[in-house]
Structure formats: C-alpha cells, structure tokens
Design a protein that fits this description.
homotetramer, about 110 residues
C-alpha cells in the first residue's frame, strides 16, 4: 500500500478532530501570519537562532500554508512553480545579479 | 531526463542571481512574515478574498519557507511530518474534537 | 479654542468617511499586523533603512493602534503605562541588566 | 514636580536595564511585528476576543512603537498627525465614504 502523502495526513489529522470548520481561508491566513511571527521571534534580538527551534516554527508556517493550498485545491509545489515562472520574468538574471537594491525595487 | 524538483528549481533560480548571500535564516524569517502579511492583507476588511490573489501571495510565503527549509538541509514535507507527530500527541482526538477553545488552550 | 488631540482628529477622519464600521477589533488587529510587516519590509535585506520611510510606516502602525485603543475606551499612553508596571516586576533591574538571553527567557 | 511622560518612563526603564543596545531600529521593527501577531492570535479562530487580553497585547505593540519613535527623535502623536495629513489627501471624503473597496484601492 502506498504511503499517504503529507497532505493526506494533514487532511486526516484535521478531519479526525473536526477542525476543517475553523480552517477558513481567512483563519488560515491569520494563522500563517501568527506562526511566521513565532519563527521571527527566534531572531528578535540576534541574527542567529537554534536550528531545531527554527525547524519547529517553520513547520507550523508550512502546515497552515499546506492547509490553505489544499483549500485552493492545489499542490504547494505547483503554487510555487507557477509563481516562479512569473518571478523569472520580473527579475531577469542580468539585471538582478548580486543586487540587493534591485532585489527590492528593480 | 528527470524533471527537476521545485526545490532544485528554486536553488538554481537564486544561484543564477547570486542571491543566496541575502538568504540568511534571519532574512528568510523576516521575508516569511512580510509575505504572510501580504496574504493577510487580502482579508483585511473582509473574510473573503479572490482565490487567484490568495494563491499568488501564498506562493511567496511558500517560496521563502522552502528556501529556509533548504537552509536547514530538510525537505519541507519532512519538516511538516515531524511536527505532525508531536501535534498528534498534544491534541488527542477525544479531547480536541470540534473544540475551538481547546484548539487554543487545551 | 483648544487644539484637538490626535485621537479626536483620527476619530473625525474615520467618521467623515463612514469607516468606523470597518474598524472592528479583529480588523484593526489584522491591520496592525499588516502595517507592522510593511515597516519590517524596510529591513528585509539589511539592518539599515531610510528614516523617512521608517517614520511613514511606523505612522500606519501607530494609527491603527490608536484606533484600537479608542475602541477599548483607553488612551494609548495609559495602556503603555499599565503594562510597564507589570513588566517592571517581571524584569527586575538586577536580573535583566544588559542581558539579551534573559531579556527573552528570564 | 511634573509627572514624567510615558516616553521618559520607557526611556528610564530601558536605560536601567542597559537594553538600548538591543533597541536598534531593525530589532524594534521585528519586535513590533512579533507583538502584532500576538495581538492577532487573540482573533485567530474568532472575531471576538477578551478586552483585557487585547489591551495587554496592544500595550506591547505600542511600547515598541513608542521606542522606535524615540529612536527617530519624534513624538508618536506627531508621527500620526503628519501621516494623517497625507492620508486626508489620498482619501477625499466624497470618494471614500462607506466604501471598503475604495478603502483599499481608491
């Protein structure tokens, strides 16, 4: 039997707890911001942070991002790939190489 | 020839532009928070938002989250799975079912 | 005639545009996070940022924070003062001096 | 003797703990985002939240916002007022009244 994908596992996990009712796009967007800030908190007073704690907080961001992707009926990898195509056009190699200023305001 | 994974594509995209120097864990953590807020902005005054714009902003969150996972030498799916194991123990089905209050403060 | 306070000015500004209907506590909380991220964006790739842009983004954070304080029927200064009393007890001078680690986890 | 302003109190509080070294504009910007998300967390699964907890989290946002204003050598009220002048021009009453869509994208 095939191993379930992490997306199936997340869906099952939420369904067993009757949580999909809370997972509206708006609530998931709030949740992503909240978890992103918990990740940022590891770097609040220093540019360095413990890798295990970073992984742990990143996991929460990814989890809610995966749940929101599922609400959109998309695989996260496809969402990233579609955007990457657009970004490639926006930041041509020759104009963006090693340039932090342009990175922002090309 | 095998299709490159989205992770390989992102790494190539950044390397071609000499951007990995900017992709420190701290800068990626800031970037995830910034993009999470752009996603949240779609819901600033209403619980509903255009699906295409949601996908577009979610893509940016996922992109930086994938880049940070790569900095940790991990696949995002593995990071989510590892955390899900912990969360399963923290929120047993019988205690959490359909309960938003407990969802928060079990 | 007395100069109106900035709080009166904000209230008038919103009322003239019939915006208080949008200024629920939840929407203001979202707005504060969104504007905080726009401020953070100035520091996305560098620890330095243009002072005028910092002031401009900080203004938006403060504006929504003032509007939320007004929703609570409180003056922002009193909210800060009340919390400062608690924080003083939590971080006694002798334990916290010059200590970033303790700053976080005393 | 005059009562010290809340800004003087905050400055004294930080100086006594030797904390101004941590209060760079970048760290304060991160801190504002982090505290804004703790405020948002009160509304993660519901549009309603306990007023005392809202006040408590708003206090932290305001505190870091006041500290950043001090770093810019400005009074928070003046920062809000300066921006309000600009916003008044950007959102004329007749175009913005009761209009959430325009509120966003006039």
């Amino acid at each position: 039997m095939a191993t379930p994908s992490v997306h199936d596992e997340l869906a099952t996990f939420a369904a067993e707890r009757d949580w999909p009712q809370f997972h509206t796009p708006e609530n998931l967007a709030k949740s992503i911001s909240i978890e992103a800030a918990e990740l940022l908190e590891l770097f609040q007073w220093s540019p360095d942070a413990d890798e295990h704690r970073v992984q742990d907080e990143l996991a929460d961001v990814l989890t809610y991002a995966y749940l929101l992707a599922a609400r959109l009926g998309k695989h996260p990898d496809d969402i990233v790939r579609t955007k990457l195509e657009k970004t490639r056009e926006k930041y041509p190699v020759e104009k963006s190489r090693g340039n932090a200023t342009k990175y922002d305001q090309l």
